[in-house]
Amino acid sequence: MGISAEKLVGEKCYSLMHHYLFPCTWKSVPEKECPYRQVFKTGLPMSVTHKHKMPDGSEKSFKVSSSPVKDENGLVISISNILKRINLKGKITRSSLCGM
């Protein structure tokens, strides 16, 4: 992504990948394709492939795997995301971690 690991940890996916101040809306990303909304809604892990804008304006494909972080009562309180960069041939080339 061109961002150091120290800056990734704890950042919001919608801020890093979509440059939004708030979670994506149904207009920008359909709910079924948004791991953030789906994991909070279902409490289950989810993976999707998304194209994201890079700091230089280019678009790159990533496999986004999101898992719930639950409290002692089983409520989702946060999300852990692993982003895996996919090259033009569909192969994973790099992984990054960010949390919600």
SS elements, strand count? 4
Number of domains: 1
Q: At the third CATH level, what is the topology name?
A: Beta-Lactamase
Report the total helices.
3
Please describe the biggest sheet, giving its number of strands, its sense, and whether it closes into a barrel: 4 strands, antiparallel
Topology:
Layout: H1 5-8, H2 13-18, H3 35-42, E1 46-53, E2 59-70, E3 76-86, E4 92-99
Tell me what you see in this structure.
- The chain is of the alpha+beta class.
- It has a single domain (5-99), classed as PAS domain (Beta-Lactamase).
- It is 18% helix and 39% strand.
- It is built from 3 helices and 4 strands; from the N terminus they run αααββββ.
Q: Could you write a compact summary of the structure shown?
A:
The chain has 100 residues and is of the alpha+beta class. It contains three helices and four strands; from the N terminus they run αααββββ. The protein has helices at residues 5-8, 13-18, 35-42; strands at 46-53, 59-70, 76-86, 92-99.
